[in-house]
Design goal:
Blueprint: H1 17-38, H2 45-54, H3 59-62, H4 67-70, H5 74-92, H6 101-109, H7 116-138, H8 144-155, H9 161-168, H10 178-182, H11 184-192
């Protein structure tokens, strides 16, 4: 899938939808490991990865319809969902064995479900956008400052302990000023987070550090 992301923005580093899906898959895998190993939550890893590698597959048919455009109005959101449903029915479904169709319909058209696997996909998608945005900003592309702020606000809305752990500890790996780049809302949210060290004592197969 050579469809490019951010078709309405100048990018120093061009990325395809396929590259994005691979990156989201790796991030989702990491979040799922944290959820299951560090925090002892039940996660279906196979479901996470199947959702991740398919979550933007519909764009091979519709193209990359930008998120803000999709959600501009309720009518627009409904229209895009209808277009995606038609695209699946008319193109993608015909390429799948009949016994796979219902399962893949869910993975492709509704990957960000309310269960833990769907929320991991939601978070991984946002985190990859954060990574893309910081790369562009560091290269001098200030267009992505607004994208980064919006993504930061979205990330703190995802109710996963792995996401809170990412915000508290992993976000420093970007080596940027957190309030300046991610905004005061995420900065203050991060400052409010505390993790009991005892949470990690039972984790023998992975370290409690990053």
């Amino acid at each position: 899938m050579e469809i490019k992301r951010y078709q309405n923005k100048y990018c120093f580093k061009k990325r395809s939808v396929a590259e994005h899906m691979w990156s989201v898959s790796k991030i989702a895998e990491g979040l799922a490991i944290w959820e299951s190993k560090k925090f002892k939550n039940k996660v279906d890893m196979a479901k996470v990865l199947q959702k991740a590698i398919n979550h933007d597959m519909i764009e091979q048919t519709t193209g990359d319809i930008l998120g803000p455009t999709k959600k501009k109005t309720p009518a627009m959101k409904e229209a895009v969902e209808e277009i995606e449903e038609l695209a699946f029915n008319e193109v993608i479904e015909k390429e799948l064995p009949k016994s796979w169709r219902n399962q893949f319909r869910s993975y492709i058209l509704n990957p960000k479900t309310d269960d833990i696997e769907g929320q991991i996909i939601r978070a991984a998608d946002i985190i990859d956008t954060i990574i893309e945005s910081i790369e562009e900003i560091k290269l001098g592309n200030d267009i992505f400052k607004a994208v980064l702020l919006d993504s930061s606000k979205s990330l703190i809305q995802v109710d996963l302990v792995s996401v809170r752990y990412f915000i508290k500890y992993a976000i420093t790996d970007f080596e940027v000023d957190i309030e300046e780049y991610f905004g005061k809302e995420l900065h203050d949210f991060r400052e409010s987070l505390n993790f009991d060290p005892k949470v990690f004592e039972a984790c023998q197969d992975i370290g409690s550090d990053l």
